[in-house]
Design goal:
Helices cover 20% and strands 25% of the residues. The chain is of the alpha+beta class and 119 residues long. The longest helix is centred in the N-terminal third of the chain and has 16 residues, at 27-42. The protein is elongated, with a radius of gyration of 16 Å.
Length: 119
């Protein structure tokens, strides 16, 4: 066993209310969140996020700290062109580091399934 922090892939745990919100989302939005999750759990340091590291996120996503005065605190992942966000924290424990999803909100609209009306 090493004395250093374990590396990626990180575990991701969800608060029950955030998980319920995720499961209630339309399928295309869950796909967006899964794409961001894949990038987040494999990044070397979940705290190091910025303009230059957001390039590996899918289009329409960005990550930033909740408070700039707390650089090791909670982060917000904006997705679906800022129509939704996921608030998470990283707990850097030696034996079981993990990312904890605290909140998930989506304000977007589902794409229409009806054919367009004729003029």
């Amino acid at each position: 066993m090493t004395d250093g922090l374990m590396g990626p892939p990180w575990q991701m745990d969800w608060r029950l209310d955030a998980l319920a919100a995720y499961e209630a989302l339309p399928g295309h939005v869950r796909e967006i969140i899964r794409a961001a999750r894949a990038e987040l759990i494999t990044v070397k340091d979940p705290y190091v996020r910025g303009i230059e590291t957001d390039v590996c996120l899918p289009d329409g996503m960005q990550v930033m700290p909740v408070r700039s005065s707390d650089p090791k605190g909670a982060r917000v992942l904006f997705f679906d062109d800022d129509n939704g966000w996921r608030k998470y924290t990283f707990v850097p424990r030696i034996e079981d580091p993990q990312i904890i999803v605290e909140q998930l909100v989506w304000l977007g609209v589902e794409p229409s399934t009806e054919p367009p009306a004729e003029p």
